[in-house]
Amino acid sequence: MAEKGARILSGMRPSGKLHLGHYHGVLESWLKLQKEAECLFFVADWHALTTEYANPADIGQNTEEMVIDWLAVGIDPQESIVFLQSHVKEHAELFLLLSMLTPLSWLERNPTYKELLTETKDRDIHTYGFLGYPVLQTADIIIYRATRVPVGMDQLPHLELAREITRRFNYLYGETFPEPQSILTEAPKILGTDGRKMSKSYNNAIYLSDPPGVVEKKLLTMVTDTARKTRKDPGNPDVCPLFTSFHQLYSDEDTLKWVREGCSSAAIGCIECKRRLIPEILGRIEPIQRRREDIERDRHLVWQTLEEGSLKARSIASSTMEEVRRLLSLR
Ligand code: TRP
Ligand code: SF4
Q1: Domains plus CATH for the chain?
Q2: pLDDT for 106-132, tens place per residue?
Q3: Around 221, how many Cα atoms within 13 Å sit in the side-chain half-sphere?
Q4: Which of 155, 166, 181, 201 to mutate to test the pocket of ligand 1 (most atoms within 8 A of CB)?
Q5: For the whole model, what pTM was predicted?
């Protein structure tokens, strides 16, 4: 997946405790990449402010909880550079300089921007900072000369813009930065307890940190094939969120066969089907939760880890900025 000499960088906005959608969508891919190449993973706290500027109070707590989950699943600060965007001020300097050469029209036609602007009703994001979101994201990436950026589908337009801005920089001042390529994290679509995409804002998520009893309860009440109204009705696993999101990830061939046959012939009930799954999921998150408990005993170590990572990141970022200043005739 990652070629030799690749430098991987990815970030997440601080969203608090992570759920199984994050785990299977992003974290598993980070864990794999961490073994293959040099990786940098960071908390995009400035990006959070592009939408949360009026209510910034939770950003610190959300950062802490999210990074605890990163560490608990096995992101290893000895292997990878794990840091906080706002601790590396050089990102802001490069963002400023890139904004000099980024045409306004590129930002205004960004589909993600247009979509969010029309969809967002609960706050005002008609701001300069929000328009510049992809410029800051470009700075995040190229300041480390990252070659590969694992992202989900929704981030592809931002990556395309990052490549365009990078090309423009290279065209104006000479080949300086590699054009970052995306790695599309093959996100299995994880649905939440109501059958919609798993998301904190839908209140349908199963969290990595949910106690076993809560995980069990959420799964037992989770929506199944909605056409299967009673125990006697046969069901179709291919349209059952429980099957497509979880059995397919957690169950072995024999169990999958048992579900397919049992469901389509009404030989098994949904509760029975769910009960087969619960121990598999609990078994997967149990070691993560044990590590979380260890980390939670010394929460200040999370911040220390981020500070140490930020120091390493800063040393790369500041040497890039020396070159950039020179190219722009700044001294
Ligand atoms: N925009 C990304 C998201 O919302 C977060 C992010 C910020 C990022 N800077 C980045 C991701 C640089 C990859 C690379 O998920
Ligand atoms: Fe879904 Fe299993 Fe119920 Fe079939 S038996 S609808 S696969 S939960």
Answers
A1: 7-189+299-327 (3.40.50.620), 210-292 (1.10.240.10)
A2: 999 999 899 888 898 889 999 999 999
A3: 9
A4: 155
A5: 0.95
